Amino acid sequence: MIEVIATSVDDAIAIEKYGGMRIELSSALSEMGITPSYALIKNVVNKVKLPIHVLIRPHSKSFVYSDHDIQVMKEDIELVKELGADGIVIGLLDEHNRIDEGKLEELLSCSDNLDVTFHRAIDVTEDPVESVRILLKYQQIKRIVTAGGKGKVVDNLDVIKKMVEAAKGRITIMLGGGLNKDNLRLALERTGASEAHLGTGVRENYHYTGDISRELLQACIKAWRSTL
């Protein structure tokens, strides 16, 4: 599975056209993403057939959220369900950078049949491998997107391999962070992961302001397929 970040309707159409397999929909890619607008979610759902997972992140200050933030996130999840998107992407930490299980459970309780991904908040935790074990408690969480800690995927291949092992096939570990056509195959082979999450690595000039590149996306898909 190759998942690609879209921040506009045009991005989403290009991702589908060029062979992407799933879309993470967000805004503010330069800030690691925040929740997209109602209208953007609605229009993307209506324009493409790919699975669409919506980032639920009310601000980019941190992954620690107040009770007011949680209320906003719950209402955004309700909108995602109303608009017919397929999944959500969430991640919550406490003030000690541990997974905030209480608030995570609050969000999961209103997520119903949505496909749930835990995002790169896990990379801020002290022990990402142990954090995988914590998330195994929650059957609603289908995958974790991670760079294995600080830095990029290629900096943490051994840690990610341990995360894949800790997940025991019950949660999918999806690589995300600094991936491109030149390192994707190595990263997949060294970690044993089977999914990849792509952002600037498939955009023109490798920059968050660039359009989705047919050449770069298809080169990444080719690299992924070579590992199957």
Which helices and strands, and how do they pair?
Blueprint: E1 2-6, H1 9-17, E2 22-25, H2 38-47, E3 52-55, H3 67-83, E4 87-90, H4 101-109, E5 115-118, H5 128-135, E6 141-146, H6 157-167, E7 172-176, H7 184-191, E8 195-198, H8 214-225
Parallel strand pairs: 1-2, 1-8, 2-3, 3-4, 4-5, 5-6, 6-7, 7-8
Helix pairs in contact: 5-6
Report the uncertain regions: none
Q: How much strand?
A: 15-25%
Q: SSE string, helix = H, strand = E? A: EHEHEHEHEHEHEHEH
**Number of beta strands:** 8
What is the highest CATH level, the class?
Alpha Beta
Largest sheet: 8 strands, parallel, barrel
What sort of overall outline do the alpha carbons produce when their principal axes are compared?
globular
Q: What is the residue-averaged pLDDT?
A: 97
CATH-assigned homologous superfamily? Copper homeostasis (CutC) domain
Distance between the first and last residues' Cα: 11 Å
Structure classification: alpha/beta
Question: Would you mind describing this structure in some detail?
Answer:
With 228 residues, this protein is an alpha/beta fold. The protein contains 8 helices and 8 strands; from the N terminus they run βαβαβαβαβαβαβαβα. Strands 1-2-3-4-5-6-7-8 form an 8-stranded parallel barrel, surrounded by 6 helices. α2 (38-47) links the parallel β2 and β3. The longest helix has 17 residues, at 67-83. The chain starts with a strand and ends with a helix. 47% of the residues are buried.
